[in-house]
Amino acid sequence: MALSSETLKKVSLELGANCPFIVFEDADVDLAVKGAIDARFRHSGQAAMCANRFFVHEEVYDGFVKKLVSTVAMMKVSDGMADGAQIGPLINDAAVARIEQIVDDAVRAGAIIATGGERLAPGANFFKPTVLIDVEPHMSLCGDEILGPIASILRFMNEDDVVALANNTRTGLAAYFYTKDINRAFRVMESLECGVVGINDSLVFNEVAPFGGTKESGMGREGAHSGIEEYLEAKYVCFGNV
Length: 242
Fold this sequence. Notes:
Blueprint: H1 2-5, E1 13-14, E2 19-23, H2 29-41, E3 51-57, H3 58-73, H4 93-108, E4 112-115, E5 130-133, E6 150-156, H5 159-167, E7 171-172, E8 174-178, H6 182-191, E9 196-199, E10 214-215, E11 218-219, H7 224-229
Parallel strand pairs: 2-3, 2-8, 3-6, 5-6, 8-9
Antiparallel strand pairs: 1-11, 4-5, 7-10
Helix pairs in contact: 2-3
């Protein structure tokens, strides 16, 4: 961006993310668990649009965690060419070491490993899909872009509080939430500080929809007509007294 400013070139930036995933007390828990799997573990968690922080209402926390953990524990970690493979390798050994450090720091801070939490095999770039429970907002993994197969679960009780927690990040790419209340859906959608919102769905990205974020997630959009606008300059022309 600094280099482009010297000659006034326009830039479109897609940067970091720390996407929240909220499960309200009236949510369809089974649907939310499926969405959580899609939102966290696609690409082995190595994508900006993956959900990082899972906020689950106290009333459905235990049920959600039980179903999520049982599903994650059964996921097949393997070479992508193998039949039934669901979780592939991380990009390199340094990425695996970073994930190990994130998990270790979280456990030292009081989080509990519900499943996973370690490499599949010594020396390999495969990390077991992991669920951490009893996570608190102040823990370091809530402030980082995870980029690995780790779901961190936090409890909440109040809608306003969870929206504030979801927005408490320097980035704002995407957010996901689950509720059956249409009024709440519009309230929360409008309150979330991000460029993309998924309501009762987490597979919301495609080429005909604008992709991009707010705050330090970048500027500009890819996809849809919004993506074309990044390459255009407006020209105003007025014919008079012809």
